[in-house]
Design goal:
globular; two-stranded antiparallel sheet; 2 strands
Length: about 325
Amino acid sequence: MKRLIPVFALALLAPFIAEILFGATPLSRMVSLPPLILLYGGGAVSIRELARRAPRPWTAVVCLGAAYGLIEEGMVMQTLFSPDLFGAAACGLRFAGVNWVWAEGLLGYHAVWSIAIPIALTELCFPQRRREPWLGRRGLAAALACYALGAASIGTVFRRIVTPNFRAPATSLVVTAIVAAGLVVTALSRRPPVARLAKLPARVPTFWLATGALVAAGLWMQLFRLPQFWRAGMRPLLPMTLAACLAAGVYRLLHRWSRAEWTAADRLELTVGAIVGSSVCGALNIHEASRFDRYGQAICSIAVLAVLSLPAFSSRLTSPNSD
């Protein structure tokens, strides 16, 4: 059972970071947490295990995370297609039955904050097991089963209670499934990784990792908060294009820095910067909620940052087996 502690930690971290810190699920609605743990936790654990068996683990994490977002938002909750659920269509550029701004923002959000960041943070907490799979085939099958059960449960709630009068067109669901399957195939492709250049002698610029992650996170979240002027007509294409360029730029920069020597502290700086960015946006998302929910989100965010700043945690990162 002790060997499963990282698995349970990841299963809890994924919905905590993606839902509670982001303000999507206030503490007053904690009753909805169990199916979210199955959905997010089962998904994150399954993706982590599949990615660790792939030749390009972090590329696999991002691709599988995007597929996860497509399935959750396109097939389970169907927010990508709903004209009124969660104000998705109001974000701008609803065309051919798809909420395009919402889709771009959420796919990036799920790939990074729902999947990649919880995985990175959990691996930082258990550095000695960072490079190895945590589950065998039966364990992976159980994680996938939990994910499927969570998806079925939440999908049933949405179909029967939340949006009883809306069903996404069958064509939209089929296309979503095909694109998600393509991402999964890409992630798990057995092609060997591209030969890497010699490592750079310079250290990764730690300060810029944290600051850059914070700024990039804040900019990406603006897709959900575009001024009204930029939501009308085809105007959202500009911020969408800029967001895509931002994502490409961050990827190229991290790829370049990956040729330098990364430490656990570097990975922590990158993760913390992104978490701070999403937590600030979460505070804005929940600013009209009850005082209990506002304070709860703030306390959770501060508590996470406090734990990550503890000397005990830092000493764990700098232990001989931390990389």
